[in-house]
Amino acid sequence: MTASASPDLSDLSALDPALARTLQRFARLDADTPTPQLDYAGRRRLLSTLQAQLLRSPLPGMVRTDHFVPAQGREITVRSYQKGGAPSPQTLVWLHGGGWMVGDLNTHDDLCEHLAQFTGHTVLSVHYRRTPENPFPAPLDDVSAVLQWLHGMQGVLPFARDSVLLGGDSAGAHLALACALRHAAAPQPADAGQPARLHGLLLFYPPIAPEQDHPSMQAFSEGFGLTRSAMARYWQELGGTEGADARCRLPASCTDTLPRLPPAVVCTASHDILRDEGEAFARQLQAAGVPTRLLRAPGMVHGFARMLTASPQARQQVEQACHALAALLQGATADSAAA
Q1: 131 near 237, Cβ under 8 Å?
Q2: Do 139 and 96 meet the contact criterion of CB atoms below 8 Å apart?
């Protein structure tokens, strides 16, 4: 559905029952997992892994392969997902969510398999460096390195292309935006390697800026998965307030670069603290002339995309967003051809 007037924020009956039950299971898992020896990041990562194991339901016929991208002083692990292992028309590079601190390839297996199923594309999931050990722009540098690798591996790997789609959920959506803005604002020098171009963005509930005080931030600050205090902690640990990439950290501030972004689908969740800032940014993209489709997923909470095996409604919303991106890109191509 297209974003519309806000529902009655006091009416929790609008929440998808399957997601409500999933949140309860997560809460019990949290309470039943004492980890006094772990710091904040370590505990959040462990719980994210346990949550994913609780919901894991592999799709049959999906071929998963790990690849290792060489980069200066490090190696970046990426995982490809192909339906039946057959060649695909496009590649969707996916950046997992988790507050830039949590999440990995395994926690997003279900989502990436379904993205490959719904789109028919090869999905390439990136395990970028996480905070607090690696402040921004370290994760952004990893995404850029993967795009350069994809361009350079054309003719070697079937999914390596000159032009790709880029997407992410939550913090991953933020990184996808930051990467698109970085490359639109300052093309890479020749000695850095040419990155694959971006021709579309698929963004689920992106965080746009810290210290937001929209109605959704107030209404859903507790009890709906992602809390206001946790989001504040994630922003604090992200770092990266200085340097050339500081503006990319706050996508809405890049007003001069926004018109150069590719077509985008922005999908928000009705019961999510990040809903209003994501929708405001989508309208900002539209005002900047970027072909943008804004969807609000009814009855959904933050993180619903990675819980799609637990909720048929969540699965339907992810599929709808994939179809919306395909239609948007088809329309943008037709407009370009007619111009």
Answers
A1: yes
A2: no
Are the CB atoms for 196 and 165 separated by under 8 Å?
A: no
Q: Give the whole-number percent of the chain exceeding pLDDT 70.
A: 91
Q: Which residue has the tokens 């892994």?
A: 49
Measured distance CA(59)–CA(54) in Å, rounded:
15
Contacts of 275 (CB under 8 A, 6+ apart): 205, 214, 216, 220, 268, 269, 296
Q: Residue 110 and residue 147: Cα distance in Å, rounded? A: 23
CA angle 20, 274, 230 (to 5 degrees): 75
Distance CA 242, CA 136 (A): 10
Q: What pLDDT is recorded for position 12?
A: 59
d(CA 186, CA 179): 11
Q: Are 291 and 199 in contact (CB under 8 A)?
A: no
At 141, which amino acid appears?
Answer: D
**Which residues contact residue 314 at a Cβ distance below 8 angstroms, ignoring those fewer than 6 apart?**
16, 18, 19, 297, 300, 304, 305, 307, 308
Beta strand pairing call for 264-271 and 197-204: parallel
pLDDT tens for each residue of 21-55: 999 999 999 999 999 999 999 999 999 999 999 99
The β-bridge partners of 294 are: 266
Q: CA-CA distance, 89 to 187, in Å (whole number)?
A: 26
Whose tokens are 């990426």? That residue is 78
Give CA–CA dist 151/189, Å, rounded. 14
C-alpha dist (Å) from residue 254 to 40, 249, 304: 32, 9, 28
| Per-residue pLDDT reduced to its tens digit, 148-186 | 999 999 999 999 999 999 999 999 999 999 999 999 987
Contact 58, 313 (CB under 8 A): no
Which residues lie across from 83 on neighbouring strands? 62
How many residues make up the chain in this entry?
339
Say if residue 215 is preceded by a cis peptide, omega within 30 of 0.
no
User: Are the CB atoms for 167 and 201 separated by under 8 Å?
Assistant: yes
